[in-house]
Structure formats: structure tokens, C-alpha cells
Design goal:
about 60 residues, EAL_dom, 4 strands, alpha/beta, about 25% helix, EAL_sf, single chain
Length: about 60
């Protein structure tokens, strides 16, 4: 089973969750909300939305 944590807002929390074995994080630490129109518009450049953490842990946005 994989574990995801929501509402992660800073790197200190990411580090703590990492020690608990959390696999994925989501929240302001990964990125701020955007207006729906901006989220649906085609990207103007290639953007990688994942941040790889040690041991293949991923921040999905």
C-alpha cells in the first residue's frame, strides 16, 4: 500500500512525513492553486509536475 499526505505546506513537513514512510505529498509545497482557465490552457512550455524525493517518493501536483 502507498500513502499520500495532503495539505503539505513546507519542506520541514515533507522531511517529517518522509521519516514516517509517506510515499506522496500534495499541497502548497508542491504548488499553489491556479484559476481553472489557466489550468485548462495548453502549457506554453514543458513543465515537469513531479518532484522526486529519495527512495522514489513523488510529489504530484
Amino acid at each position: 500500500m502507498q500513502v499520500a499526505a495532503e495539505w503539505v505546506q513546507d519542506g520541514e513537513t515533507v522531511e517529517l512525513l518522509r521519516t514516517y514512510g509517506v510515499d506522496f505529498v500534495q499541497g502548497y509545497w508542491c504548488g499553489r492553486p491556479v484559476p481553472i482557465a489557466a489550468g485548462l490552457a495548453p502549457p506554453t512550455e514543458s513543465i515537469e509536475m513531479e518532484i522526486r524525493l529519495p527512495a522514489q517518493r513523488v510529489c504530484g501536483g
